[in-house]
């Protein structure tokens, strides 16, 4: 591994058009799981000027029958959930307004051919919802055991969104992007070399005194988020580098579910299997296996067994057991990686019931309406509270230490 380098990650706000789509898709997941914890959901969203379109396959008691007929009142609940999500984000603009956008619902019953491969039967456990590879990652760069570049990128935009919602930054609009470049020495972040923030704003905040106010505000947010020792006179800021940013969100650019998979995960610091998360129920291993591998990698790092850890699993559609498990501590492990693979396998079996789709889902308690909160500012590095973000708990530390020492 190189020890001295520059590395960059980006984030996007809850008002970015792709994130609007992700949040709508996960609002539908939560709505359906609240009605049937065993519901099958694959909900894609398109957003553009004054339009939201849903498409995908669903199945669930009290939701839709196999002929495509909605249960009484549910179709209206779907539209209400979509509009409420856009309202919460804050879109009340001529080009995209929660109350007046045109809405199309094209959800339909799940394919019987997919269902027969995934459902449990008399002689088989529930199979994976699709083939694929999933990665989990953790490192000791921040207290949340996340890559520092991504952690700071997320927190800049979270801070700005909180100020916008509270009214303390009334010149901000929902759409925004951030990017943080850090210099690393001996594998640790030592300086912020470049900060990029592009934020949608009220008219007039692109020049003169109002433009200076916006610039000063962004720099203050950066100073609140990034440790002071990383910032200096050498840090270069690019704030709304293209100039005016009044037209934004779905009115400025179409949004689709699942287009921000690197923002959602590790900011490029880890491999990615390619599968998106939002809009999918937890039988889809794209989502649930990515969560459990983060859980295991985070606990390995929290246990002091590595400073940096990548875990990969692979699945075949309709098959319950993973095809492979791979652990890489990038030369930072206190024991060998093959020993850690054995430890992870043993602890997952004992504490979760294994790495089958059912084991992951029941072991982490994923059959609940907990997903809307994941759909902006990253699925990882978040604070576990109640049923939310259970994959961020570090309750396997002692078990992994014992298994690695055995």
Would you give an account of this structure?
The protein is α+β, with helices and mostly antiparallel strands and 406 residues long. It is built from eleven helices and 13 strands. The chain has helices spanning 17-35, 74-89, 112-118, 148-166, 208-225, 249-252, 261-264, 285-302, 337-352, 357-364, 397-405, and strands spanning 5-12, 40-48, 51-59, 92-93, 96-97, 102-109, 132-139, 172-185, 188-201, 236-239, 255-256, 308-315, 324-328. Helix 5 (208-225) links the parallel strand 9 and strand 10 (236-239).
List the helices and strands and how they pair.
Blueprint (H helix, E strand, L loop, with lengths): L4 E8 L4 H19 L4 E9 L2 E9 L14 H16 L2 E2 L2 E2 L4 E8 L2 H7 L13 E8 L8 H19 L5 E14 L2 E14 L6 H18 L10 E4 L9 H4 L2 E2 L4 H4 L20 H18 L5 E8 L8 E5 L8 H16 L4 H8 L32 H9 L1
What's this, in brief?
This protein is α+β, with helices and mostly antiparallel strands and 406 residues long.
Key phrases:
13 strands; 11 helices; alpha+beta; 406 residues; four-stranded mixed β-sheet
Overall mean pLDDT: 95
| Total number of strands | 13
Which strands sit side by side, in order, in the main sheet? 1-8-9-10
Main sheet characteristics: 4 strands, mixed
């Amino acid at each position: 591994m190189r020890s001295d380098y520059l590395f960059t990650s980006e984030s996007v706000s809850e008002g970015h058009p792709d994130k609007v789509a992700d949040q709508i898709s996960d609002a539908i997941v939560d709505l359906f799981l609240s009605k049937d914890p065993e519901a099958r959901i694959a909900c894609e969203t398109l957003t553009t000027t004054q339009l939201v379109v849903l498409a995908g396959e669903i199945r669930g008691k009290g939701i839709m029958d196999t002929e495509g007929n909605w249960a009484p009142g549910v179709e209206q609940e779907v539209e209400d959930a979509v509009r409420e999500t856009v309202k919460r984000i804050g879109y009340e603009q001529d080009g995209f307004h929660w109350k007046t956008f045109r809405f199309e619902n094209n959800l339909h019953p799940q394919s019987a051919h997919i269902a027969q491969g995934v459902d449990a039967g008399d002689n088989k456990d529930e199979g994976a919802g699709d083939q694929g590879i999933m990665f989990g990652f953790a490192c000791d760069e921040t207290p949340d055991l996340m890559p520092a570049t991504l952690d700071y990128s997320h927190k800049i935009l979270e801070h700005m969104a909180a100020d916008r919602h509270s009214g303390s930054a009334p010149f901000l609009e929902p759409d925004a992007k951030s990017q943080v470049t850090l210099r690393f020495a001996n594998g640790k972040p030592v300086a912020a070399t470049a900060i990029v923030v592009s934020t949608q704003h009220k008219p007039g905040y692109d020049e003169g005194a109002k433009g200076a106010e916006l610039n000063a505000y962004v720099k203050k947010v950066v100073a609140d988020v990034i440790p002071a020792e990383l910032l200096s006179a050498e840090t270069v800021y690019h704030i709304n580098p293209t100039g005016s940013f009044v037209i934004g969100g779905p009115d400025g650019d179409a949004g689709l579910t699942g287009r921000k998979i690197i923002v959602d995960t590790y900011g490029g610091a880890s491999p990615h299997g390619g599968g998106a998360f939002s809009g999918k129920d937890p039988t889809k291993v794209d989502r649930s296996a990515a969560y459990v591998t983060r859980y295991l990698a985070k606990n390995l790092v929290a246990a002091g067994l590595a400073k940096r850890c990548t875990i990969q699993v692979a699945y075949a559609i309709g098959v319950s057991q993973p095809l492979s498990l791979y652990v890489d501590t990038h030369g930072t492990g206190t024991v060998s990686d093959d020993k850690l693979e054995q430890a992870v396998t043993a602890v997952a079996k004992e504490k979760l019931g294994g790495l089958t789709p059912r084991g992951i889902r029941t072991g982490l308690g994923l059959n609940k309406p907990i997903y809307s909160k994941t759909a902006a500012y990253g699925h990882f590095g978040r604070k576990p509270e109640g049923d939310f973000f259970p994959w961020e708990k570090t309750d396997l530390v002692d078990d992994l230490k014992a298994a690695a020492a055995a």
